[in-house]
Amino acid sequence: MNKHKKASLFILITTAVVLYLLAGILLNPFILWTSLPLYISYLFINKAVKLHSISKLISAYGFMLFSVAFSVFYHITWYIDWQGTKTGSSTSALIFIWLPLYSVILGFIGYVLGKLAGRLYERKA
Asked: Which of 28, 49, 57, 76 has its CA 20 to 30 A from that of 115?
């Protein structure tokens, strides 16, 4: 189980660095807020590892997959200005106030789907 903790920590730190680089700002303390889904993902994975629960681990990975994928996707669309994401409005950057909350909501959808997958896994095992 320790390998899951190390792998998730590597993924989450790498994602935080990618989000920071995609922001394009040298000194960006706001990255602490936009990385909220990463912290929550790590807490879920850490708890699952401590409990030695495969079902909870699958749920935690579901949360991480959905929340991090959405956050990275939006940061990339912002970085490349896809369909005017960055330049389409003078207030378009305000999305980063709400983006962590949207990512967490999607993460909980992934958590529920992971929980269902975990129950199926336990039933077959």
From this structure: 76
